[in-house]
């Protein structure tokens, strides 16, 4: 089955840029979606189809996908961005929906 | 306003059964892709099942043959019937609405999630 690999943790100072990667075999050929999950809460969609933002998500959140790596970029990081972030794809070859293992973003 | 409210979680013994419900409002369950995603305590998200608007269903290997996804059009509710439960099924179970898209290939993502219901499998 298809595997998505994320770093367990990323740390960044307020106001700086955070980049969270999601690795997968030829992931650039798939559409990648990203979710934010704060403690005790349900996940929230922050980016879909590699780089599109749902209504209400700040422009500070952006995405890019090419080759074997997709990246979620959070610009001008705020304390409120501290959360777990998950990437997700649909693997059409096996009809499986796959999540990455998640990355904990810490705002220093 | 779109809302999803799960219920039915609780403590069950290994080998037991449980049925989760997800009551929807603000949209029609039967016209949408609907899914269940679970999260073991302190761990990541795991997709377990999806039902398409055309009633096709798919399952993760970890629950295939034990779990059944279904929906009741009249109640606008999604269900997950769980049998032969194991300790490793212990998790918060979320229902989510799926959106299907095509951008060179088909994909599905979730735009609305419920608040989750905790299932604990233990003797």
What's the topology here?
The complex is a heterodimer of chains A (108) and B (123).
Chain A: E1 9-12, E2 18-23, E3 33-37, E4 44-47, E5 61-66, E6 69-74, E7 83-91, E8 96-99, E9 103-107
Parallel strand pairs in A: 1-9
Antiparallel strand pairs in A: 2-6, 3-4, 3-7, 5-6, 7-8, 7-9
Chain B: E1 3-7, E2 10-12, E3 18-25, E4 33-39, E5 46-51, E6 57-59, E7 67-72, E8 77-82, E9 91-102, E10 106-113, E11 117-121
Parallel strand pairs in B: 2-11
Antiparallel strand pairs in B: 1-3, 3-8, 4-5, 4-9, 5-6, 7-8, 9-10, 9-11
Detailed description of the structure:
Helices cover 0% and strands 45% of the residues of chain A. Chain A contains no helices and nine strands. With 123 residues, chain B is mainly beta. In chain B, 0% of the residues lie in helices and 56% in strands. Chain B is built from no helices and eleven strands. In chain B, the strands form two sheets. In chain B, strands 2, 4, 5, 6, 9, 10 and 11 form a seven-stranded mixed sheet that branches. In chain B, strands 1-3-8-7 form a four-stranded antiparallel sheet, with no helix packed on it. The mean pLDDT of chain B is 95. The chains are: A mainly beta (108), B mainly beta (123). Chains A and B meet through strand 3, strand 7 and strand 8 of A and strand 5, strand 9 and strand 10 of B.
């Amino acid at each position: 089955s298809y595997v998505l690999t994320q770093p367990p943790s990323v740390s960044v100072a307020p106001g700086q840029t955070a980049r969270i990667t999601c690795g997968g075999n030829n992931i650039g050929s798939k559409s990648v979606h990203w979710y934010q999950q704060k403690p005790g809460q349900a996940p929230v969609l922050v980016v879909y189809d590699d780089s599109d933002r749902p209504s209400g998500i700040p422009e500070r959140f952006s995405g890019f996908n090419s080759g074997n790596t997709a990246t979620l970029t959070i610009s001008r990081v705020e304390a409120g961005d501290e959360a777990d972030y998950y990437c997700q794809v649909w693997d059409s070859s096996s009809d499986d929906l796959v999540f990455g293992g998640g990355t904990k973003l810490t705002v220093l | 306003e779109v809302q999803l409210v799960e219920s039915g979680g609780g403590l069950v013994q290994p080998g037991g059964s449980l049925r989760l419900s997800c009551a929807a409002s603000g949209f029609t369950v039967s016209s949408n892709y609907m899914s269940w995603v679970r999260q073991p305590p302190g761990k990541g998200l795991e997709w377990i099942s999806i039902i398409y608007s055309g009633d096709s269903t798919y399952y993760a290997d970890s629950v295939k043959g034990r779990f059944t996804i279904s929906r009741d059009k009249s109640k606008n509710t999604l269900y997950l019937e769980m049998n032969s439960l194991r300790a490793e099924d212990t998790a918060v179970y979320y229902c989510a609405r799926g959106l299907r898209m095509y951008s060179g290939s088909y994909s599905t993502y979730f735009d609305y999630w419920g608040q989750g219901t905790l299932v604990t499998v233990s003797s």
